[in-house]
Amino acid sequence: MKKLFSKPEWLLVIVTSLGYFCDVYDILLFSAVRKASLIAIGVPETELANVGLSLLNWQLAGMLVGGLFWGVFADKRGRMVVLFGSIIAYSVATFANAFVSSVGMYAVMRFVAGVGLAGELGVGVTLISEVLEKHKRSYGVAILASFGMLGGVVAALVASKMTWQTSYMVGGVMGLALLLFRVSVADSEMFKKVYASSIGKGNILQLLGNKSLLVKYILCVLVGAPTYVFAGTFITLAPEFGTKLGLSEPPSAATALLYFYVCLTIFDGISGLLSKKLQSRKKTLYIFLALQIFAVIAYLFIPFETANGFYIRCGLIGAAMGYWTIVCVNAAEQFGINLRATVATSVPNFARGLQIPFSFLYKSLAVSLGIIKAGAFVSIASVLVALVAVFLLKERFENDLDFVENEN
C-alpha cells in the first residue's frame, strides 16, 4: 500500500499543523475567558458584551495588519521566515495578556497578538500546497486545518480548568516551544526558483492595480465572510444568547466554545475530504453555506429546554463553519507563486476582519430589534454575500501551482 506522505512531507504537515494549533488556541481563548478576565479588571456586568466585542475587534484589526505584512514578507523573503517571526510575536503577546490590568492595556495586547496570529494559517497552507504533489494537497490541508482547530478545543478545556491568567500563559509557552520543531522545515522549491529570479514578488500594487486579480481577491475574502460573524456573535456572546433564548442560568462560554470547536474540527477535515470526493471546491462550499443557514435557524428559532440543547446548537454552528479549510486552500489555488502567500495569508485575516463591520451592524440592530433578530439578520446576510462570491469564482480544484502572475 502506497504511503500517503513521505517522512519529510509528514514533518512539514505536522509542524505547520502544530503552528496552527497554537494560533487557534490563542484566537479562541479570548472568547472562553472574556467574562472572567473583564470582571477581574473591573468591567461592569452590563458592559461585558460591548467591551468584549470591542476587544475582539482590536484583535481582528491586528490580524488585518498582520495578514498583509506577513503575506507580503512571505512572498518577498520566504515562507519559513514568517512562520518563525509570527509565532514569536503572538506567543510573547499571548503570555503578556495574562498581566493586563485595564481595558486599554487589554486592547493593545489583543492587537499585538492579532498581528502575530495573522501569519500562521495562510503561510502554512501556502507551504503545504507548494511542497505536496497536487493530488495530496487536499489531504495535507485537511490535516492542517483539523489538527489546528483542536487548538480551540484545548483552549476551551484549559479555560474551564484554569484561571484566565494561567490560560494565557499556557498559550504563550506552547508557541515558543514550537520554535524548536521549525528548524527542520525548509521553503518549497517552487518559491526558491521564483526567489532567485527577477520576477516581482509580494507586490501589493500589482494585486490592487490589476482589475481581474483584485476582483478575484475580494471574492476569496467574501467566501469566508460568515466564519467569524458566526463565531464572534453566537459563540463569544453565548451567555447572553442562552439567557435570551430561555435558559434560567447563563450558559458557559467555555463549554459553548468546546462544542463549537469539537464539531468544527471534525467537519473541517470532512470538508477537505468531501472536496476531494466531489473533485470540486465550489460544490463543497455550497453545501456548507446551506448548512450555515440551517444552523442559524436551529440556534435562534428551534426551541430547547436545557443547557445541553443550547450547547448542541453551538456544535451545529461549528459543524457549519467546517468549510474554513476550503476557504484557505481555494485562495492559495487561485494565485501564482509570486502573490500566493500575500493572498493566502491576508484572505483568511480579511475574512475574519469582516466581523468588525458586521459586529457594528449587529450592535446597532440589537438596540432596535433585540439580539435574536439582529443575530439572524447579520448571519444570514454574511451567508448570502459568501454565496454570491462562490458563484462568481472559477473552480481551481487541485490545479498546477507552479505559475506566476504576470506583472503587466
Describe the overall structure.
This protein is 79% helix and 0% strand. The protein has 408 residues and is mostly helical. It has one domain: Growth Hormone, Chain: A, CATH 1.20.1250.20. Helix 13 (253-278) runs antiparallel to helix 14 (281-301). The termini are far apart.
In brief:
The chain is mainly α and 408 residues long. The protein has helices at residues 7-40, 48-77, 79-96, 103-117, 120-131, 137-161, 164-182, 189-195, 204-209, 211-223, 226-235, 238-244, 253-278, 281-301, 307-320, 324-334, 337-353, 355-369, 371-392.
Record the SSE blueprint.
Blueprint: H1 7-40, H2 48-77, H3 79-96, H4 103-117, H5 120-131, H6 137-161, H7 164-182, H8 189-195, H9 204-209, H10 211-223, H11 226-235, H12 238-244, H13 253-278, H14 281-301, H15 307-320, H16 324-334, H17 337-353, H18 355-369, H19 371-392
Report the structural category: mainly alpha
Low-confidence blocks of residues: none
Shape: globular
Task: Write out the CATH superfamily name.
Answer: MFS general substrate transporter like domains
Report the C-alpha radius of gyration, rounded: 20 Å
Report on the biggest sheet: none
The mean pLDDT is 90
Tell me the span between the first and last alpha carbons: 47 Å
